């Protein structure tokens, strides 16, 4: 499979300013640090890590929702390859049809004053190229709404008349109405009831199959990521510390931070006690990260080398990379709960 998205050495820094009138810049917060990865066409890459690890900032930087400080984001659409980081305002607006985002909160991401029809039609109307007349717009809105499980009658209503799951269906229809190639899903199920989460995950999987979509799936929920993602990237303090096939990362992690994350995956048996591996210490300040390996202040395997030398990602087995000096030597525990539950729970 060819790559749809190629991210190379992407960094996002934010200035740290003093309070008060003059607001002097006194430092910089490195939210995303020199991140590189690619996503093949039709693939789903999961992005996991604790809050503040830089997942959402990375997703936004790929779509230019926030301005990257350096690096490249190349998207290969049917019309050719574009470097998203170099587009001017007008070109970026035109390119947005190729990449869209589904947000976490379907309550705040929909305009309460617009009907569902108008919400879904808005990207079509705002598009500068390939203008459609009203009849063609309505046809396209009905088509994508039905694919997302909404009926024609619902298109006349306002968002407040819908449940959380239905609102997320509206948000998905809006994101897909322009036939995008890449969709960044930022915690698309985390604000929904558990029973509805599975419906939305299944809908995303069906739409990927029928429309040939490529997903970057940002989530906290490791079980959901295991269910929908072909590969997983683990982020810690702005860096990708491990990336590989879902099965490899979950069952045979090679980075100590991934091991700690996987220990928090719940057992399928509700009576089985959860034994998460508690990380020592606080998460370091991203404006002042530790020297050497950024994870060293919380890592149970840290040595003196870790304090002086930043580890670089190494390929442990085909397409499985980890940034740890001891990735080849450590014997780490994976997500046993998922393995016990049956391997069909983890995407091939
Ligand atoms: Fe832990 Fe050292 Fe590996 Fe960092 S490089 S994860 S501190 S063992």
Please characterize this protein's 3D structure.
The structure is a single chain. This protein is an alpha/beta fold. The protein folds into 2 domains: 3-229, 3-Layer(aba) Sandwich (Rossmann fold), CATH 3.40.50; 235-347, no CATH class. It has helices at 55-62, 89-95, 116-126, 134-147, 164-176, 194-211, 222-228, 246-251, 256-262, 304-308, 336-341; strands at residues 3-17, 25-40, 44-48, 70-77, 80-83, 99-102, 182-186, 214-218, 231-236, 239-245, 314-317, 320-322. It has an 8-stranded mixed beta sheet, sandwiched between helices. A 4-stranded antiparallel beta sheet has the order 2-1-4-5. Helix 3 packs parallel to helix 5, helix 4 crosses helix 5 (164-176) and helix 5 (164-176) packs parallel to helix 6 (194-211). The protein starts with a strand and ends in a 7-residue tail after the last helix. 42% of the residues are buried. Residues 341-345 have low confidence and may be disordered. It binds iron/sulfur cluster (SF4). The site of iron/sulfur cluster has 13 residues, from loops.
Summarize the structure.
The protein has 348 residues and is an alpha/beta fold.
Structure characteristics:
24% strand; 348 residues; Rossmann fold; 8-stranded mixed β-sheet; 11 helices; 2 domains; alpha/beta; binds iron/sulfur cluster; 4-stranded antiparallel β-sheet
Helix content: 25-40%
Strand content: 15-25%
Strand line-up across the major sheet:
6-7-8-3-9-10-12-11
Structurally, the number of domains stands at 2
State the total count of DSSP E strands.
12
Q: What would you call the shape?
A: globular
Instruction: Please give the largest β-sheet.
Output: 8 strands, mixed
CA-based gyration radius: 21 Å
CATH topology of the largest domain: Rossmann fold
Structural class: alpha/beta
From the N-terminal CA to the C-terminal CA, the straight-line distance is 15 Å
- The CATH class assignment of the largest domain is Alpha Beta
- Please identify the oligomeric state: single chain
Query: What is the succession of H and E elements?
Result: EEEHEEHEHHHEHEHEEHHHEEH
Which residues form runs of ≥5 with pLDDT under 50? Answer: 341-345
CATH superfamily label of the largest domain? P-loop containing nucleotide triphosphate hydrolases
Query: What's the tally of helices?
Result: 11
